[in-house]
Amino acid sequence: MTSTATPAPTAATAPAGEIPPGSSPWQLARQELRRRPAVKISLAVVTLFLLMAVTAPWLAALGGWSPDQFDKSAVDPYLGGLPIGSLGGISGEHWLGVEPVTGRDLFARVVHGAQVSLLIAFAATAVVVLTGTAAGIAAGYFGGRTDAVLSRLMDLTMSFPSLIFMIAMLSVAKDVNRILLMTAVIGLFGWPGIARVVRGQTLSLKHREYVDAARVGGSSSWRILTRDILPGVSGPVIAYTTLLIPGMISTEAALSYLGVGVRPPTPSWGQMIAESVAFYETDPMYFVIPSTFLFLAVLAFTLLGDALRDILDPRGGRT
Asked: What is the pTM of this model?
């Protein structure tokens, strides 16, 4: 009597909802993300905001108004420039209403504000991640004096009250590109956090067997760092990156709200919220609309980042 062995399930034969053995970490991550309804919703919202930011000029043109175009016929000069109509002037002509006094279309300004806010957030995140990852890997792998210098630099940067220094630096600089300046200033104070995470991960990886084998085999430090160390820290870095983005969006909004960020007439969500404070009693929709967009963007990126952290860096999520 002969017995036949049952073949192990593969990605093609595994039952729906089950993770096949031997799956890569990215396959495991995708499978786990599909199981979470909140992640699906947040990913859809994130995708929607990214598309809105990329297509902002076309969306504004579809609405029929540019972000800087005044429509005096949409406001009542006898009521202090309040929008004509209910809910802040929402109508077929102005889909989200208009700004008080100026009559500028809120839909056009919100979608262009998404472009500015997300551009600064993603650019600053890229600066932080690249700088922090490079510094963390160098400190953890080379150790000694390199580790001591970079670690002290991390401690020094983190000891500064970053928001106060951001406000001071942005207030002093006048005739410069505000988007580039905000990206550089936010990145200057943001890199030590991820550098510490990467340093700790690198310290645990540099004594692994495959790293020692590569070192004994004559591989250069650059090859070991790029082929062995960097892939090992990519999971925590990606998880940390997705958690950085909502913080960057909030930082940009806070700086613009305080008047040291993006300057008018360039729209941003923080700047719109700051301008709407004077009208929150007479025209609450002017405050509610940009605040809602900011809230949804931060919430969606936060939920997605939390899920990726739990999957790609479970130990980091418990600490």
From this structure: 0.82
